[in-house]
Amino acid sequence: MPDFVLRNLTARDDPSFLMMQIGAFNGLEYLPRIKVGLSALDREGSFIAERNGSMVGCIGLLKLDRSGWFEVRNLALRESSETDTAKKLIGRVAEFLKANHAEYVKAFTPAVQPYVDLYKEAGFEPVRRSLRICWNLATCQERENKIETSELSKEHADDAAQLWISGLRPYWDYWIDEQGGPESLASWVRESVAKRQGWIGAFIDKELVGLSILRCDSYGSGEARFNGAYATPEFRKRGVGSALMNATIREALKRNQNTMRVYTLAFLDHLAPGAVLYLKTGGRIEGEYLQLQMRR
């Protein structure tokens, strides 16, 4: 009989874990958690399945920034037919969550089979989608816009923190909760802006009314990570988003970036405003992901 082992993920497994994602999803793997965030996984709640010493499946777990809140992700199989292996991996994570008195559990997966159905069978239900949108920056054209934009400095840190939280609402309320609440996020924004980490602001009559976030070379040389464009509710539909997109694309080109990617919210049956803006400014959908929540 084949020697089947289910054990915790360790640091030495990381290269094989990454290759399992790439092999399973062939370009649809979720880049922020794969290329820049693997160390965030909870090793005690993440597992790999081996047969005869070779990895055949894996699953990851994140502790969110609220006590008792978790996210299951990175379920991947060497062969899509290994559904029994996937069920064992999900079952082992479920045991860990029960032992740790989980209060809230979500899952995240590329929207491909068999993974969607495996989560549904385990008691998760879809609540929203995420889209990966990519710009080929060499082909992007600016849209006419007269709103002032500039890089944010530490003097803008407090205003930027307040604006970002209001700019996320109401579409990203769930994410604010998962990250520990508005003050936790605001603290991160103030620190990041003070360090001048790629924040761009839009101004009307010298008032900061919108911002965007660009991280150059995040996914490789010339491959930028875009963390979105946001406007305060009272300044939406006034060209702020278009101004920020113009400025962000200009900055990316200035820094020799070839592509720019964002992961953005989409509802189950329609697009959120951010996704519409990104598509209008030259972005193209590369991948679709599903967020699911454990039924209580």
- Strands across the major sheet, in which order? 1-2-3-4-5-12-6-11-10-9-8-7
List unreliable stretches of 5+ residues: none
Radius of gyration: 20 Å
CATH class of the largest domain: Alpha Beta
Helix/strand/pairing category? alpha+beta
* The CATH fourth-level homologous superfamily of the largest domain: Gcn5-related N-acetyltransferase (GNAT)
Which of globular, elongated, flat, extended, rod-shaped describes the shape?
elongated
Average pLDDT level: 93
Could you tell me the number of beta strands?
Answer: 12
The name of the CATH topology of the largest domain is Aminopeptidase
- How much beta, percentage-wise? 25-35%
Helix amount: 25-40%
What does it look like?
With about 300 residues, this protein is an alpha+beta fold. The chain folds into two domains: about 5-120, Aminopeptidase; about 135-290, Aminopeptidase, CATH 3.40.630.30. It contains nine helices and twelve strands. The relative contact order is 0.16.
Characteristics:
elongated, Aminopeptidase, 296 residues, 12 strands, single chain, twelve-stranded mixed β-sheet, alpha+beta
Note the topology.
Elements: E1 4-8, H1 14-25, H2 31-35, E2 47-51, E3 54-63, E4 69-77, H3 83-99, E5 104-110, H4 115-121, E6 124-136, E7 148-151, H5 157-168, H6 173-178, H7 182-194, E8 199-204, E9 207-215, E10 223-231, H8 240-254, E11 259-266, H9 273-280, E12 284-294
Parallel strand pairs: 4-5, 10-11
Antiparallel strand pairs: 1-2, 2-3, 3-4, 5-12, 6-11, 6-12, 7-8, 8-9, 9-10
